[in-house]
Design brief:
- With 209 residues, the protein is α+β, with helices and mostly antiparallel strands.
- The protein has helices at 6-13, 15-34, 103-107, 123-126, 185-197, and strands at 39-45, 52-53, 59-65, 84-85, 114-120, 134-139, 154-163, 177-183, 200-204.
- The chain is elongated and about 95 Å long.
């Protein structure tokens, strides 16, 4: 019989120790695999939300894996009472800064843009609009009290809809509804002047390919 080599004799002598070390290593790997990842609490929709002012009962706290928390997520303790949600939010969806009407949302439309509230005469037509839509704003030749006005309709083309906030039921009005548009400073001035002299309506652009 050939003599056993020194390395093999060493392994044979310490096989129990090696087996224990291998078992401990395997157990450590399994522990790492099943250990839950770190989480971060964030604010999320407590139920399906439509656009409009938020209340404290509209949101809840959920724990997300830290690596899955979206940029701009709002954390517990953030004061959201009265803030305006620009677009609908599904139950459980995290709330981020660009979902609220404010600087973070406006900045996504380009430098120097303004969020300009515009009252549209036909509230029913305004329900067809959604954030991100492109519209033309038209000023008809009659005022809110049906008094005729002089001059051609005011038209500002290709404005983006930022938000279509739904007012609380106790604040509904028969004088149209508000939408919020992304405008330049000059466009905002033109719209403000047009709103004092005429009824405003919108036409919706189709998709471009």
């Amino acid at each position: 019989m050939r003599p056993t080599s020194p390395p093999l004799r060493l392994i044979t002598r310490h096989r129990r120790l090696l087996a224990a070390l291998l078992a401990a290593t395997a157990l450590w790997c399994v522990t790492l695999a099943v250990q839950p990842p770190p989480t971060t609490p964030v604010l999320a929709a407590a139920h399906d939300l439509s656009s409009g002012p938020l209340t404290t009962t509209d949101l809840t706290v959920v724990n997300l894996p830290t690596t899955a928390v979206p940029d701009g997520a709002l954390l517990p303790g953030t004061d959201i009472t009265g803030r305006v949600l620009a677009a609908p939010l599904r139950r459980g969806e995290p709330l981020t800064d660009v979902r609220l009407l404010g600087p973070a949302l406006i900045d996504t439309y380009g430098p120097g843009m303004r969020a300009t509230p515009v009252r549209i005469h036909d509230a029913t037509a305004a329900t067809l609009l959604h954030p991100g839509d492109t519209v033309d704003v038209i000023g008809t030749t009659s005022q809110w009290d049906d008094t005729p006005t002089q001059g051609p309709p005011t038209v500002i083309r290709s404005l983006k809809v930022i938000a279509t906030p739904k007012p609380p039921p106790d604040q509904l009005t028969e004088t149209g509804t508000l939408i919020v548009l992304a405008t330049t400073s000059d466009q905002a001035t033109t719209l403000a002047h047009a709103a004092t002299t005429s009824r405003l309506s919108v036409t919706l652009h189709g998709r471009t390919h």
